[in-house]
Amino acid sequence: MIVMNLPDGLPLVADGLHLWSPGHPGTWGFANCLLVTSGGDAALVDTPYDRPMTEALIAAARPLLAGATVGTIVNTHVNGDHTFGNGLFPGADIIATKASAEHLCREPSPAQMHFLTHGTPADEPLGWYAREHFGRYRYEGVDAVPPNITFSGRHDLRVGEIDVELIEVGPAHSAGDLIVHLPAQRVVCAGDVLFADDHPVHWDGPLARVAAACETVLALEPEVIVPGHGPLMSPEDVHQYAAYLRELAELIRVRHAAGVPAYEAAADILTTGFHDHLGLPERIVILTAVEYRHLDGGHGEPDLVALAGQAARWAYERRGPGAGTVPPSG
């Protein structure tokens, strides 16, 4: 069980921009958030996964707010690890894409996440995996607060004297991804279009759409890119990430053309040592299943829990010595 050592401050990224980056590679749920402050106004890009993490962010941000309140929240997409903290900012406008709002119904709720981490069998793959990666979070007393402002394409706003451009790039990681461009600061907050340090997870795809979203980020010519998870990235890091996606898409395509079932294809790709310096290799199982759905011409909604269950199966089958003991959920 990872101890939740959370940041007690928000380092400066650029003028008016401060980063909440809880780190913890090799697990799920520790998403980056970006605080934007100017002239007594404040906005937050994404919110943490549960109440304790959100309260820790609020405490760390308090010296930077100087009595101001966060009046705007931008959700880059509606996965819970980027939105479950929304309710701790009463009165704030919450902005997301129209597509995100329309697909909220398929997202696991806080109550469902609590059940996965407490009510599923701990000696079966999904129950074991849920406790391993999500058992540290407190889903009780959390309400999934939806956006009250939605858009398609592009939406501009100002936070004090800072111009903020919201650009829709989904479907990619999810059905309704957006990126946040701060042109004067030459910063892009990319949400889960980008991951650093770990293999990514993308629920909607195909991978070509995620790579295209990376190209949209690069076309804005930022100096600094904030990924959804992990440390800050450079434009070269984004180029390498897009190359990773294209390489993986081709590996999957070849196995699909040969008639290899998706789970077996993912396992085979992993045996080659594909980017084995990255954490959470089981996410390749999810990426392969999603890519197969597109290659098969499928247009249905992805089942996020079922996909996670496939990844859990792969990880469960490869537990090391002593890994059969499920860690406590507290």
UniProtKB/TrEMBL annotation:
Signal peptide range in chain numbering: none
SMART domains: Lactamase_B
InterPro entries for this protein: Metallo-B-lactamas (IPR001279), NDM-1-like (IPR050855), RibonucZ/Hydroxyglut_hydro (IPR036866)
Domain Metallo-beta-lactamase residue range list: 30-229
Gene3D superfamilies assigned to the protein according to its UniProt record, in alphabetical order: Ribonuclease Z/Hydroxyacylglutathione hydrolase-like
UniProt-recorded name of the protein: MBL fold metallo-hydrolase
Organism, scientific name: Streptomyces griseoviridis
Lineage: Bacteria, Bacillati, Actinomycetota, Actinomycetes, Kitasatosporales
